[in-house]
Structures are given as C-alpha cells and as structure tokens.
Design goal:
The chain is mainly α and 218 residues long. The chain is built from seven helices and no strands.
Length: 218
C-alpha cells in the first residue's frame, strides 16, 4: 500500500516522468528474465555427459598449462551459455523510458475519446481495445524492432530482415494476448495505473520480444 501511495504522489506531481522511470525498470526486469531463460534453455540443450562451464574452463587451463601457450590461446566458449548482455539490458530500459510519453498521451487520448461511465462501460472499453490493437500495436511493434536494430548498430537491411523474420509472428502473438489484457485494463484499472499494469503484464511479453529480437543473432 505504501508503494501505491508513493506512486500516486509521484504521478500527481510528475506523471510522465513517473511512468518513464517505471517502464524503464520493468523493461530491464523483462530483459533480465529473457536472458535468464536463454541461459537456462542453453543448459537444457546441453548433451548428457557434455562438460559444463566449470569443467570446460578446467580442461582449457590444463591444456594450456601443458602446452605453455596460455598467452596465445583463448578458452573455447562455443559450448558455454551466453554471458549476460548489459548493453542489451540498457537498450531495453532505454526503449521503455523513451516510449512511455507516447504511451501516456495515447492512453489519455483513448480515455477522452471513449469515456467509461457507470451507465456505459463495456462498449467504450471494447472501442478502446479495437483502436489500440488496430492502430497502436502494429506501430508500436514496428518502433520496437526498428529501435532495437538501430541501437544494435544495424542499418536499413538489418531492419528489413528483422521485419521479414519476426514482425508478423510477433504481431500475431500480440493479437492473441493483448486484447483480453486491455479489456481488463480499460474496464477496471484506474487511468494512472493503466500503463504500469500493462508494463507489469508486459514483463512476459517483453521477454518474448527480447527472445524474438535476438533469435536471428545466434
């Protein structure tokens, strides 16, 4: 309750900045989850009897000491799980931070355009969801994949390949998850909590996007 009271106080004073900070933290959590899942999946795919990370390092050290060439060789890391990518984490936090003002004004627009009252609640909520999914969701996904690819150093060709490989599957997954979430969000959740609610549910979604975004980098 104290956390909610603090959030309300900060939101009342600086709503956009509060949302930006909240989304940055949640985006970081989501990518941490995604990278952890990648490491777990890598270990689960490791063949039985295949040496783990510690054993590989010990073998490499032993071999290097025998050949007295530790300065000329590097340990073989092809069987090791990927190291935690802090640059990737920063990119996700930056995207959540920068996208928040757009989300803030979009949700405010939907609230004004389709007001929910005691007499009429379900129909305006459905209209908000339709508008959100048909307009904002496709554009938002396009912004996400473009931002991430450019932030990774990719150019036009890399962006085009990203769209070709993962955009449509991600958009289909979006339509399977978010309409139901947004109906609940618009119908029940107060306006100041709508973006944090979406971002909290979106931890799993952003983790999926993170995995999708990095799927063609292996």
């Amino acid at each position: 309750m104290r956390l909610i009271a603090k959030f309300n106080r900060y939101y009342a004073e600086k709503p956009i900045l509060t949302i930006m900070m909240t989304n940055a933290v949640l985006g970081g959590i989501a990518d941490t989850v995604a990278q952890s899942l990648t490491a777990i999946r890598h270990r689960s795919l490791q063949k039985p009897g295949e040496p783990d990370e510690t054993e590989l390092v010990e073998i490499e050290i032993d071999e290097l000491s025998k050949k007295d060439s530790w300065l000329a060789r590097e340990p073989d890391t092809k069987h090791l799980p990927p190291q935690f990518d802090f640059e990737r984490l920063t990119r996700f936090m930056a995207y959540g931070f920068l996208m928040s003002p757009v989300q803030f004004h979009w949700f405010a627009f939907l609230s004004r355009a389709f007001p929910i009252t005691k007499q009429s609640g379900t129909i305006p909520a459905l209209k908000r969801v339709a508008m959100d999914q048909l307009m904002f969701a496709p554009i938002g996904l396009a912004c996400f994949f473009t931002f991430m690819t450019v932030a990774e150093g990719g150019g036009r060709r890399a962006v085009a390949r990203k769209f070709q490989d993962v955009y449509l599957p991600a958009l289909k997954a979006n339509f399977m998850l978010w309409p139901a979430v947004q109906i609940l969000n618009f119908r029940v959740v107060p306006l100041q909590f709508q973006i944090p609610f979406v971002s909290s549910i979106g931890i799993a979604w952003t983790a999926y996007l993170s995995l999708s975004n990095s799927s063609d980098e292996a």
